[in-house]
Amino acid sequence: MNMNDIKQFKVVLLGAGNLATSLGLALVKSGFSVEQVYSRTLEAAQTLANVLNASAVSCLDELSNSADVYLLALKDDALPGVIQQVCRLNPHAVYVHTAGSVPMSVFNNLAVNHGVLYPLQTFSKQKPLDFDSIPCLIEGANAFSQDVLWRIANALSKNVHLASSEDRRVMHLGAVFGCNFVNLCYTLANETLKSRGLDFELLLPLIDETAAKVHRMGPLEAQTGPAVRKDKKVMQGQMQLIDDADRRRLYELMSEMIHKLANK
Amino acid sequence: MNMNDIKQFKVVLLGAGNLATSLGLALVKSGFSVEQVYSRTLEAAQTLANVLNASAVSCLDELSNSADVYLLALKDDALPGVIQQVCRLNPHAVYVHTAGSVPMSVFNNLAVNHGVLYPLQTFSKQKPLDFDSIPCLIEGANAFSQDVLWRIANALSKNVHLASSEDRRVMHLGAVFGCNFVNLCYTLANETLKSRGLDFELLLPLIDETAAKVHRMGPLEAQTGPAVRKDKKVMQGQMQLIDDADRRRLYELMSEMIHKLANK
């Protein structure tokens, strides 16, 4: 591997989902060449491979054994099995996964050079994201792996941080609260409005300002609404509007938590 | 009242909190003159009155009886009591409250001309918001009241909608899900990161993209993360990181709800 020009690294990308798509596009945009795209479904591999000017494979046996970097952007539960097979390909390569909650040790005894590149973002195929400002948490098993990861990540993003597997795991939990659970709240807002034929679009300025606010102040300080004011009458009135048992439990629990946190 | 130039309306603003501050500033910026600002605490009334070039009062007896519009931006539970006293002042004036969950009927038998102007946004005193794009839901008790409200709201915002008390109540519940509960999720993300000395700032690109996504697609379609994938291993691992009993209940409940909604 020519360490002076990392962009000459041959990259094999495993995965063709939301993250793999954004990552593949960012790699190519940054000057890397992606040799192969692997997915269990050839069609998915082919779709991404076409865009990246790579070849598509749907069988691990067909993977090149001459790549410098194997990037595994797969579902967490698929990782251990694929790693077992892929790490045999090239003992000199660097093997990298992209998962928040899978420790780096998943590569132990299977590859010398390995590490993790975890982009802290929510991805969708429909609109691949610019990697430029995405925080990338990296971890390398040895100095060489870490250097390679550091240089790849810095070619993709201006927001690169070293993070241990344990830090990354906590970060991933933070991301579930700050993204996945937030998005559930958006869904529940949408369902609430739909029940009376009201337009979700009316909520977008509020959704945007709620996110913008936590750039200016801590989220606890930014809290507004009936729960933080302990406005029981409003809360009881709102509970009466909710039919679904889960949603009622959620409303009560979140209101209680807001009140406790604000008065801690 | 000279109906041809609503900006010559004399306005009395009751309240000096987050909403009253943003609303008062928007009124003055749009050319209205605010005569008086009322708050139970004179200091709060004075602070806002100074900015609005109005006089400050802390006693309802001191309110002018010659205003054209009385705007009540008060806490929900303070409204009925204040309305009782204020509506006696001028039988020709329009009386308006700004609360999501208080029906317009709170004015019944107390004022002929009355209505509601509900700005669907989260306000903070630190940074008064531009009203321009804030959805304003209005409701008027009669044609005159509705016309006055329509014209005031349109002077403040380009996003004005007629909405009944029942629509507004549902909208308010949507806002609690889409803003207050979202903000609790931000707080829990922040607390999670703090527990390991990690910086909340790392989550801001993710928070922004999560909000941006629901401009492009429905929130259910935008859902990502371990719960929608039903990745039990990740979810169990994350539960182990959570000490607090409320947070564990919340994690389980929200994960279940995401999974159910995505597979409905």
TrEMBL record, chains A, B:
Q: Spell out the PANTHER family in the cross-references.
A: CONSERVED HYPOTHETICAL ALANINE AND LEUCINE RICH PROTEIN
Q: Which InterPro entries would you find in this protein's record? A: 6-PGluconate_DH-like_C_sf, DUF2520, NAD(P)-bd_dom_sf, P5C_Rdtase_cat_N, TM1727-like_C_sf
Q: What is this protein called?
A: Putative short-subunit dehydrogenase-like oxidoreductase (DUF2520 family)
* DUF2520 domain mapped to chain residues: 134-257
Q: Which residues form the Pyrroline-5-carboxylate reductase catalytic N-terminal domain?
A: 10-96
Pfam families associated with the record: DUF2520 (PF10728), F420_oxidored (PF03807)
Q: Which domain of life is it from?
A: Bacteria
Q: Which organism does this sequence originate in? A: Hoylesella shahii DSM 15611 = JCM 12083
